[in-house]
Specification:
Helix content: 40-55%
Structural class: alpha/beta
CATH topology of the largest domain: TIM Barrel
Oligomer: single chain
CATH superfamily of the largest domain: Phosphoenolpyruvate-binding domains
Mean pLDDT: 92
CATH class of the largest domain: Alpha Beta
Radius of gyration: 28 Å
Strand order of the largest sheet: 12-6-4-3-2-1-14-13
Number of helices: 19
Number of strands: 14
CATH architecture of the largest domain: Alpha-Beta Barrel
Largest sheet: 8 strands, parallel
Shape: globular
Length: 532
């Protein structure tokens, strides 16, 4: 017996047990409502998706072509439409996730208004957005299943048994829109206890994966801004452990932790690491400090700090801000140490924030990490902060120049120019860009590719196009030709926005509750009928 039919049978038996007072409860209606709600709590979502991620990680280890992807979404509706689109075009959601960007939370969701990515927004809005995203994804399940239920009723009314069985099979094998979210907890919004408390909120909202970075929480900067300040390893590891304890407390035994290092672009530290013996983790961190070795106390000025490093006295360079500076050119070595240390202390995945999308650069660091931790895997930020066009054109230019190819027709500093779009260099650069995710997953250990804030940019671009036409000479045609006509012809579900918002689901529920007395919105006078 199918799941659909067995659910109906179970509720029918329950109604019989409860007697005459349940006489108006329709088993099939109750079964439909039950199947429309695949997850009773958001902790159920976290547990389900942790299993999905672990399966995907194992499959990637066996075959690097099986990498995963996501787009950052700043609203539940955007996340919902993304997953509906994925199911429409690809038939399944396998290996497609959502990313929750701290940058977009700060810029778009704070009650303070738009903020830079510096952990100034309310920490609770991160959990609120996770909960909102999953609420919209669950509603997408209900919406799509509701259409299947209506199609089932139509098949029965037509007496088409084969069609009825086909639709029930689709219901029984239904794939949910609910997919993993990689949730950005920034630097933990405080000390390790604060990190633990916030991690619990994110997990309770449905997060199966938490991404945390090694910057100081009160000096946190966007990964693509200057002035980044890192913390000693032990401070960061305490926060990784805090996240793990939060997962374990809530019963998500296989929750995933992404340890992000900003050391490649961070030249500062707020504190000198505690060290107990030469060569320990604190000593290794301190070995990167910039400064001068001294011979005696006469070289110490008022307010100077002196530590013993490499068997000698080191006076670290201290800035007017009180921060300490790392030696120039040590970023990559610090990244490698950060990553190995994180994986050896409870992290599952790595995130290396880079300044450009360059497979060779990423692979150079990852291969060093893999010498110690062979199955090291990355989550990589395909960031809109990179000028992708210029970066790849310059990479092609440099490769050609190295090969001895004549590049005199190109100005390297001006390769962003439209005049290069249809040139051999421009077209090859586009191919490199198109293949970047495949190449980086094969050569540089990238398990998950994400774009942090694409929907921030798509919202701005589409709004600009609509505003330019609507408030200009095109008037209403700007919306009709630029939006509605495309929605209709591309089969975008939102053209029937009342249905997308739950109108038909509500009508059917009203009928379950009140029978023929139900006042429904979807009758002949509903203008949604104009869209077929």
């Amino acid at each position: 017996m199918s799941d659909y039919r067995s659910t109906i049978e179970h509720i029918a038996k329950l109604r019989e047990q409860m007697g005459d007072s349940w006489r108006d409860i329709k088993p099939e209606a109750a079964a439909r409502m039950k199947l429309q709600n695949r997850f009773n709590t958001h902790l159920d979502i976290a547990k389900y998706n942790a299993g999905i991620m672990r399966k995907d990680m194992a499959e990637y280890d066996a075959d690097t072509s099986k990498y995963t992807q996501s787009l950052g979404c700043w609203h539940g509706f955007i996340g919902q439409q993304k997953l509906i689109s994925i199911k429409k075009h690809f038939g399944k959601t396998d290996k497609r996730y959502l990313y929750l960007s701290g940058w977009m939370v700060a810029a778009l969701r704070s009650e303070f208004g738009p903020l830079p990515d510096q952990s100034m927004h309310e920490k609770t809005v991160v959990a609120d957005l996770i909960r909102e995203l999953y609420t919209f994804l669950k509603q997408a399940d209900a919406w799509e299943l509701n259409h299947l239920f209506r199609a089932l009723d139509d098949a029965r009314e037509a007496g088409d048994k084969a069609k009825e069985d086909e639709i029930i099979n689709k219901i029984d094998n239904y794939e949910t829109h609910v997919v993993p979210i990689i949730a950005d907890i920034d630097a933990g919004f405080g000390n390790a206890e604060a990190t633990y408390l916030l991690a619990k909120k994110l997990i309770e909202a449905g997060a199966c994966c938490i991404q945390i970075e090694n910057q100081v929480s009160d000096e946190k900067q966007c990964g693509h801004q200057d002035g980044k300040v890192t913390v000693p390893h032990e401070d960061f590891l305490a926060k990784i452990r805090a996240c793990r304890y939060a997962f374990l407390e809530l019963g998500i035994d296989d929750g995933v932790i992404v340890a992000r290092t900003d050391s490649l672009g961070a030249g500062l530290t707020k504190q000198i690491a505690v060290t107990n013996e030469p060569g320990d983790l604190g000593d290794q961190y301190n070995s990167f400090l910039d400064g001068e070795y001294i011979d005696d106390a006469s070289q110490i000025n008022n307010g100077d700090v002196v530590i013993k490093s490499n068997g000698k006295l080191l006076k670290p360079k201290r800035l007017p801000s009180g921060l300490f500076q790392f030696k120039p050119g040590t970023g990559e070595d610090r990244v490698v140490l950060d990553c190995i240390t994180s994986l050896q202390n409870g992290a599952d995945l790595l995130w290396i924030e880079t300044e450009k999308p360059h497979v060779g650069q990423i692979a150079g660091m990852v291969n060093r990490i893999k010498e110690v931790v062979p199955n090291a895997k990355l989550v990589y930020n395909n960031s809109p902060s990179f000028n992708w066009t210029l970066n790849f054109r310059q990479q092609v230019f440099d490769a050609w120049e190295k090969e001895g190819k004549d590049v005199s027709a190109y100005d390297r500093a001006k390769l962003m120019s439209e005049e290069y779009d249809n040139t051999e260099l421009g077209q090859l650069a586009d191919e490199w860009c198109q293949n970047f995710q495949r190449d980086a997953s094969r050569e540089a250990g990238v398990f998950h590719h994400l774009i942090t804030l694409p929907t921030y940019h798509t919202a701005a671009l589409s709004t600009d196009n609509l505003a330019k036409g609507y408030f200009g000479d095109e008037g209403m045609l700007a919306y009709v030709a630029g939006v509605q006509r495309k929605e209709i012809r591309q089969g975008i579900a939102t053209v029937k926005h009342q249905d997308m918002a739950g109108s038909n689901i509500g009508d059917d529920h009203k009928e379950y509750f009140a029978g023929e007395a139900a006042l429904k919105a979807g009758g002949k006078d509903n203008t949604m009928n104009q869209f077929g």
